[in-house]
Amino acid sequence: MIKEKGILFVLSGPSGVGKGTVRKALFEKDTELKYSISMTTRAMREGEQEGIDYFYRSRDDFENMIQNNKLLEYAEYVGNYYGTPRDYVEETLESGKDVFLEIEVQGALQVKKNFPEGVFIFLFPPSLEELKNRIVSRGTETEELVKNRLLAAKEEIDMMDAYDYVVVNDKIDHAVEKVQSIVRSEHCKRERVAKQYKKVLEADLG
Amino acid sequence: MIKEKGILFVLSGPSGVGKGTVRKALFEKDTELKYSISMTTRAMREGEQEGIDYFYRSRDDFENMIQNNKLLEYAEYVGNYYGTPRDYVEETLESGKDVFLEIEVQGALQVKKNFPEGVFIFLFPPSLEELKNRIVSRGTETEELVKNRLLAAKEEIDMMDAYDYVVVNDKIDHAVEKVQSIVRSEHCKRERVAKQYKKVLEADLG
Question: What is the ipTM of this complex?
């Protein structure tokens, strides 16, 4: 039987852009996506559960996983490690489910390095959209201010280069609709679909 | 001002797969897409209009356009030429509108050669889906029949290789939803979006 593998989707973008809000709204609409569960060295809190809120590991275990490249990304924050376990992601994808990871830019770039076959979505602040309009009506701003805004925009655009898609978060439901379209259309990509079909044919035509 | 260019979408697939039905259902939902208008040497019929139904040209003019590579594809059918005029497509895209072309496989492959930046969608008959299930329950069919079906499927899959997406036409509204997702997500492709933003930045930062 052909079982289509899941796809890892990584939603990222500058802090404050609204990644969490978009992800939450997306998960309310799409119950098929699996949210990636992080691993941490911090203690389990009241009401939390292993494998639901986090995978809880000792510092030694975590550092061992870092050594063995068992994390798609990790970071230390207030004395504790947090990271994305590769095995959990790969097993979920193998089972045919898409995995959705919401993460800041540095983490996303680590995932990109360790799992380039993921689909990377950059959530963009609506400010460049505004910037576009601003540039149109040039002359109403000082040259200095326009230049500063453009330089800030340039930095954001350079970060974008590692990503497959850019979604402007002008309105949450627009952004969610676009992310859903990306998820759907990625499953129609010829490379993926043809590969599946070809596997069957090779197996049966020899 | 940044004006995003339109995208040429080409919907194609084996004859009888339901291209026309999917295209019609899509256009009922999406009024933003522009349908590509063909050029022909056949006489204008009662009620038809230049630039609405077709662009009508003499045989000499048409052959001149072929010579000058002014057609994205063409074919002769019952003594008349039919083709897709490059200028019309390019002007529509420049104006910021997407162009949608529904065409058989040979024509699509010509368009691909002449306009590789188009997005090519292969509408796939649901039979391979059925085939998948059939293969699963092997033994209920003769080996010969399964092999023939697989060979037919192989030919279709080889045709797919020139395409960007494959949409299985199992149900019309599923297929339409997928095509809509492809249209939406293509507009979020980083290469397109970043290129637009970069143009502005280059112009303004020098």
Answer: 0.85
